[in-house]
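Reading a protein record of the kind used here takes little practice once its layout is understood. Each number in the token line that follows is a code from a learned vocabulary of backbone shapes. One such record is shown here in full, so that the layout can be seen directly:
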Amino acid sequence: MLVSMLLSGDAQLQRCAVEDPAHVTEGQKGPHVRLIQLALAITDNADIAGAEFASSSYGPSTTAAVLAYKTKRQIINRSYQNKPDAIVGKMTIASLDAEVAARERRNLAMGAGRPGADITTKRD
């Protein structure tokens, strides 16, 4: 189960954390995609295109950000892969959630107060 304040409240992402068919992939749209984009901005200062962010769509810049995140952390399911892909599945959402939760704890300890207080997104 997801624990970060940012991601844990979304049912689609909770399913993604435990069900293979609930993986998030390019072409999807919705609040769950926006939350992934925010998590990527928090953890990697990802440069998500403004149009993708505004429409909560998993387009090319989100795909690139997911792939960069997974490559940097070597998130690979070694049972069938030898390099990262751009799918947000169980391993990826767990890693994003853990990193966001750690950032949230630091922010709260420093008095920032609200989840995502240090988020800056880049827009076209």
